[in-house]
């Protein structure tokens, strides 16, 4: 996709747009040819209005004033995007921001839209709305390239599906007459993995108890925002507690509070009977917390360091990585070899940098590292985000195995199927509070989704009416 | 698989050397053009530099200079490994040398007590001066670049105030030089007699020890790993349990302590007093040398030697009728080229490695499917 958008040059091969062979050396070339990209992570300035964000960098097209505003309204109406040009972006929700991104691309005259994992941050209801927008665009004669690893979505929205695995096209199919299972088999090259867990292993021994966590932050304008509001829960040995929620509702801060990277204003964290509320991060890790961070590039890896140094990261004070104050490089390297083998990290060796591995293999290395220090509690934040289906299945297996061995697992995810499939208990987080709980055995993603937008609270019961 | 690993390693080494070599070659080309532009013969200049630079008295001079430069390079490199830009090395070493010189001049104890005391005083002074910037950074978020630049000026002012006749200094040499009270000869550091070539400063031994300690602490200890982790990614470091703020303050202090040593070869082996002609600006030289040496203990040594060589030989060129500004041109171009070359070579290396990993994995996958087909 980066090649198609001019961010990277291909070694060989050609791109043909509208019957004409082209080469892109930068995104500007791609835009000039009518190719626009909506990135997975939005590229919007929060403190500017929608209008300002849209014209930013494209001032030459329609100016920055009334003409641009008219144009934005025109595009918005033509495709049913419902974008209001004079609202500040920071006041918009995720779905609205995404529509602004799409509008930005259309404003620049794109005839081909690339959407990179557009649904990862949306709740099911918003996904449906997005699909309606996409159908509108299609009806107006635009081309949409929709990248996703969610099979159901691809099948429902696409006219033609191309499956890419490890950098090669493995097949192109028609969505009509293809089942999700067939498609998944194309993707993995074998049987479809599901995130189902076997019989319950939940014990009644509490391992992690979080009580009354409260965190408020004062932003630049002096307005106090409550980020965590009276969060309390208990995870038992052998239990997976899943937390559902649209991103940015306090999940990251909750994890950081449990890890000791952020001090909550009030509240206690108890691990295996010991109060660790005031313990530094390193001691918490030594006490047996394994951590799969939501952003592995920022929190889980040293990208420019070799794999064996990444194996030491976070566990420098523990064997086999060190003896006393000295590093034990030989033992650390040997153990890295073991992790690479045991967790099927696809790499030519342990001296390559972490950056040269694919996302899935980086994640498997992290999981292997965290599981190698006999954790009692595993915090897994979006453990399968941005990893291929094969690695995803493997990571699910490791989490299941951890649960079988009596670990307590805190699972935070935006993938509702993953949450429902792996969790023993489900809680929904909305604006810093745990607003609802649900039984993963009966709940549907749609029902969870309504709680994630704050529409439903309390104990979510699966009702037959919801089934359409 | 093993073969590939070693190949990547060898390549990395080759790429590591390629950048500075490329930079030096580019600098020579640019210098040649500059000399040509002044209407002189660059070939003759270079051959003069080589013959003069490798004469035995030049070698001693270069090693002595390089001792000072090496310490400066290491002091800066400690900051660099942390992603800290300690521009204040300059002020730290001058203030440290001044305090040490005053103390050394006042001490009336045997050399084996006085010399360690003088060195420790210098390190503590450098560390404290650097700690100001470190504390400001972790408590108030003040950029260390700004605070250390200002601390350099303050150090200059403090020294200028105290280095006056009647305060901590006195007039020497018929009233042209203001200097602290000289160290007693018992407090001189040992030198190695190199015959007619001159005397090699004994402080080179300390410089080598500092280099070994730098390598060992950074590469072989938990503390060094934590320090490098913070330098590579603060977010990953804090998630891994390193207290980033504590680490910033600590490494600033260590950088300052090593900076305190920079003035010691000159003070203990050469001038034996701090005067108003004590060498200045070595902290900035250290930045160039740390860049050139890629923060690597051996690399910094080579950089320091190159710097000493250039200084020695271009000084001589002046007597041959060339412009003395050639030195500045060569040094400037080298630093510029080094920064560019590292970036280019680094990107190339990473891309190449990624391609290699991809190719290797594709080959593995192909082999696996073939095996399956056979079975």
TrEMBL record, chain B:
<feature type="transmembrane region" description="Helical">
    <location>
        <begin position="12"/>
        <end position="38"/>
    </location>
</feature>
<feature type="transmembrane region" description="Helical">
    <location>
        <begin position="248"/>
        <end position="268"/>
    </location>
</feature>
<keyword id="KW-1003">Cell membrane</keyword>
<feature type="transmembrane region" description="Helical">
    <location>
        <begin position="200"/>
        <end position="218"/>
    </location>
</feature>
<keyword id="KW-1133">Transmembrane helix</keyword>
<keyword id="KW-0472">Membrane</keyword>
<protein>
    <submittedName>
        <fullName>ABC transporter permease</fullName>
    </submittedName>
</protein>
<feature type="transmembrane region" description="Helical">
    <location>
        <begin position="145"/>
        <end position="163"/>
    </location>
</feature>
<feature type="transmembrane region" description="Helical">
    <location>
        <begin position="119"/>
        <end position="138"/>
    </location>
</feature>
<keyword id="KW-0812">Transmembrane</keyword>
<dbReference type="Pfam" id="PF02653">
    <property type="entry name" value="BPD_transp_2"/>
</dbReference>
<feature type="transmembrane region" description="Helical">
    <location>
        <begin position="58"/>
        <end position="80"/>
    </location>
</feature>
<feature type="transmembrane region" description="Helical">
    <location>
        <begin position="326"/>
        <end position="345"/>
    </location>
</feature>
<dbReference type="InterPro" id="IPR001851">
    <property type="entry name" value="ABC_transp_permease"/>
</dbReference>
<feature type="transmembrane region" description="Helical">
    <location>
        <begin position="92"/>
        <end position="113"/>
    </location>
</feature>
């Amino acid at each position: 996709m980066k090649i198609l958008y001019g961010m990277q040059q291909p070694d060989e091969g050609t791109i043909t747009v509208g019957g004409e062979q082209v080469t892109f050396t930068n995104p500007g070339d791609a835009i000039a040819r009518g190719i626009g990209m909506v990135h997975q992570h939005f590229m919007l300035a929060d403190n500017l209005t929608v209008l300002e964000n849209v014209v930013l960098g494209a001032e030459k097209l329609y100016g920055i004033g009334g003409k641009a505003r008219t144009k934005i309204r025109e595009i918005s109406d033509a495709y049913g995007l419902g974008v209001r040009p004079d609202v500040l972006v920071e006041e918009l929700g995720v779905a609205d921001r995404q529509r602004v991104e799409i509008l930005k691309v259309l404003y620049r005259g794109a005839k081909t839209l690339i959407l990179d994992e557009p649904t990862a941050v949306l709740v099911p209801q918003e996904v449906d709305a997005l699909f309606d927008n996409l159908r509108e665009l299609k009806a107006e004669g635009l081309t949409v390239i929709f990248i996703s690893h969610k099979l159901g979505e691809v099948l429902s929205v696409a006219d033609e599906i191309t499956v890419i695995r490890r950098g090669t096209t493995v097949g192109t199919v028609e969505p009509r007459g293809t089942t999700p299972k067939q498609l998944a088999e194309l993707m993995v090259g074998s049987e479809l993995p599901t995130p189902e867990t076997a019989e319950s292993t939940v014990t009644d021994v509490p391992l992690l108890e979080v009580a009354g966590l409260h965190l408020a932050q004062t932003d630049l304008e002096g307005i106090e925002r409550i980020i965590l509001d009276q969060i309390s829960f208990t995870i038992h040995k052998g239990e997976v507690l899943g937390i559902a929620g649209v991103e940015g509702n306090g999940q990251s801060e909750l994890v950081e509070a449990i890890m000791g990277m952020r001090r909550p204003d009030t509240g206690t964290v108890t691990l295996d009977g010991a109060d660790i509320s005031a313990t530094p991060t390193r001691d918490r890790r030594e006490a047996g917390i394994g951590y799969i961070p939501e952003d592995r590039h920022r929190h889980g890896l040293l990208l420019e360091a070799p794999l064996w140094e990444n194996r030491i990261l976070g566990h420098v004070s523990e064997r086999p990585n060190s003896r006393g104050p000295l590093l034990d490089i030989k033992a650390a390297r040997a153990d890295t070899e073991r992790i690479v083998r045991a967790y099927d990290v696809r790499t030519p060796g342990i001296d390559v940098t972490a950056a040269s591995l694919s996302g899935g293999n980086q994640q498997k290395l992290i999981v292997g590292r965290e599981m190698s220090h006999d954790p009692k509690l595993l915090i897994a934040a979006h453990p399968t985000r941005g990893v291929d289906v094969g690695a995803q299945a493997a990571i699910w297996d490791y989490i299941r195995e951890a649960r079988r061995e009596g670990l307590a697992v805190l699972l935070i995810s935006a993938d509702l199927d993953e949450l429902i499939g792996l969790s023993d208990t489900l809680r929904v987080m909305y604006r810093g509070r745990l607003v609802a709980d649900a039984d993963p055995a009966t709940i549907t993603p749609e029902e969870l989704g309504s709680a994630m937008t704050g529409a439903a609270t309390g104990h979510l019961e699966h009702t037959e009416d919801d089934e359409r | 698989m093993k073969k590939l690993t070693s190949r990547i390693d060898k390549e990395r080494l080759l790429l590591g050397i390629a950048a500075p070599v490329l930079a030096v070659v580019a600098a020579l080309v640019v210098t040649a053009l500059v000399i040509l532009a002044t209407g002189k013969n660059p070939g003759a200049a270079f051959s003069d530099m080589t013959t003069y630079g490798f004469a035995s008295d030049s070698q001693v001079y270069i090693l002595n200079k390089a001792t000072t430069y090496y310490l400066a390079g290491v002091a800066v490199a400690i900051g660099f490994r942390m992603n800290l830009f300690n521009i204040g090395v300059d002020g730290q070493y001058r203030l440290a040398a001044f305090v040490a010189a005053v103390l050394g001049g006042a001490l009336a104890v045997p050399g084996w007590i006085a010399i360690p005391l003088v060195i420790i005083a210098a390190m503590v002074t450098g560390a404290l001066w650097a700690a100001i910037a470190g504390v400001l950074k972790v408590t108030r978020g003040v950029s260390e670049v700004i605070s250390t630049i200002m601390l350099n000026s303050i150090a200059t002012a403090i020294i200028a105030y105290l280095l006056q006749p009647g305060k901590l200094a006195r007039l020497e040499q018929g009233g042209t030089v203001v200097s602290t009270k000289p160290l007693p000869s018992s407090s001189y550091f040992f030198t190695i007699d190199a015959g007619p070539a001159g005397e090699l400063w004994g402080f080179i031994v300390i410089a080598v020890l500092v280099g070994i300690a730098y390598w060992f602490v950074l590469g072989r200890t938990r503390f060094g790993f934590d320090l490098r982790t913070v330098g590579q990614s603060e977010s990953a470091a804090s998630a891994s349990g390193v207290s980033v703020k504590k680490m910033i303050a600590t490494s600033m202090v260590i950088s300052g302590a090593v900076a305190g040593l920079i003035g010691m070869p000159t003070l203990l082996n050469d001038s034996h007093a701090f005067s108003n002609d004590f060498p200045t600006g070595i902290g900035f030289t250290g930045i160039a040398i740390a860049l050139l040496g890629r923060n690597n203990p051996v690399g910094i040594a080579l950089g320091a030697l190159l710097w000493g060589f250039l200084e020695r030989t271009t000084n001589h060129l002046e007597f041959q009728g060339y412009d003395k500004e050639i030195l500045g041109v060569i040094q400037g171009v080298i630093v510029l080229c080094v920064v560019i070359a590292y970036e280019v070579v680094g990107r190339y290396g990473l891309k190449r490695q990624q391609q290699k990993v991809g190719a290797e994995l594709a080959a593995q996958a192909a082999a696996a499917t073939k095996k399956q087909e056979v079975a």
